[in-house]
Amino acid sequence: MRKIINELFPDGVPVLWCPLLTHYDAEGRIDAARIHRHFEHLAPYIRGFLIPGSTGDGWDLTEAEEQRVLEIALEQTAKFRAHLLVGILRPDLGQARTRLRALAERLMQNTGEESIHKALAKARVCGFTICPPKGAAISQPEMREQLAGFLAEGLPTALYQLPQVTQNEIGPEVVSDLAREFNNFVLFKDTSGQDRVVLSEKDLYGVFMVRGAEGEYARWFKHGSGMYPGFLLSTANCFAREFSQMIEDLSAGRAEAGNRMSARLSTVIGEVFQLVSPLPQGNPFTNANKAMDHFFAYGPRATAVPGPRLHAGVQLAAEIIRGTEEILSRNGFLSAKGYLE
Predict the structure, then answer these.
(1) Are the beta carbons of 50 and 129 closer than 8 angstroms?
(2) Which residues is 230 bridged to in the sheet?
(3) What does the alpha-carbon distance between residue 116 and residue 62 come to, in Å, rounded to a whole number?
(4) 300: which DSSP letter?
């Protein structure tokens, strides 16, 4: 494993990561109190967070909203001694580099450190997450050039494969080449569902691999029958305890128990994603998790509480909430008490 990873994660890289949801109040403002409670609910099981990721509306937040979300994230990761990947999700990597420099300056000011690396350590920020530049016509050489430009900034960086948004994929050769050249390339997340990079078996020079696609979790985990040492899952917003148990079982050789939990999670998550797929606002990762989190937050009275608000300004409709309740109930995942109760 590369030296920088050992320095960033002296106790080991977390196996389970969560791209935290962004909650809003009735007027559409960032709901800090609600995010605090959600973070507290997840913290016993999750040691690594991506904020803001796609699930947390990272592509849609205004700069002011993004700054507020990061302020909350920094407070919470410090409180619970978790690791934070800061999402810089921009369609253009020139814009991402500009944002990176602004964030670095702010972190140094906030921590009182003159060195950005000391500021990152003090703030418990383990790196910055970017996607390839957006566009189906972008060639692999152009993609490599732009990603290399960001990595040349020298700060710990995670690359995020997200063709659902970027309309393209970073090829295995480019990922391997960047990993060889840049020691600060620390983590690669693949949400494509195609898994071409890990299946290529190209040398990734110690970059930590996490899978973001949903379903068949045990199949893809290295202690199951797969090749990923970790996960960065939107649904960890709702099933952190269950994923942690599955990982523990598979890692301890309890394959039957781990596979059984993986199958249960794959079923319920697949059904809720299908339920929200026709919605025109938001993205399926956000919408499905907000629908399920509503029940983990409010427990048995969830259907009496207005549905969660999306960044677009609409609430999830009552039929989505009722459908989610039926799916969770049928699969044995309804909570007797919500974490807001």
Answers:
(1) yes
(2) 210
(3) 25
(4) G
Q: pLDDT tens digits, residue range 12-40?
A: 999 999 999 999 999 999 999 999 999 99
Q: Phi and psi at residue 249, in whole multiples of 5°?
A: -65, -45
Per-residue pLDDT band for 2 (boundaries 50, 70, 90) equals confident
Q: What is the largest CA-CA distance in the chain?
A: 55
Category of 124 on φ-ψ map: left (φ > 0), alpha (ψ -120 to 50) or beta: left
Output the pTM of the full model.
Answer: 0.97
Neighbour-count burial of 32, counting CB atoms closer than 10 A to its CB (0-12 exposed, 13-18 middle, 19+ buried)? middle
Q: Is 51 helix (H, G, I), strand (E, B) or coil?
A: strand
Is the separation of the CB atoms in 65 and 73 below 8 Å?
Answer: no
* Count of helices and strands (H, E) across the chain: 14, 8
* Domain regions of the chain by residue span: 3-252
Distances from the Cα of 247 to the Cα of 43, 207, 226, 232, 285, angstroms: 16, 20, 13, 13, 21
Q: State the CATH class of domain 3-252.
A: alpha beta
> Cα dist. 285→16, 47, 105, 264, 293 in Å?
17, 21, 31, 18, 12
Question: Is the N-terminal amide bond of 284 cis, ω within 30° of 0?
Answer: no
Residue 159, beta-bridge partner list: 130, 188
SS3 164: helix
Encode pLDDT of 67-123 as tens digits.
Answer: 999 999 999 999 999 999 999 999 999 999 999 999 999 999 999 999 999 999 999
Sign of torsion over alpha carbons 118, 48, 25, 32: negative
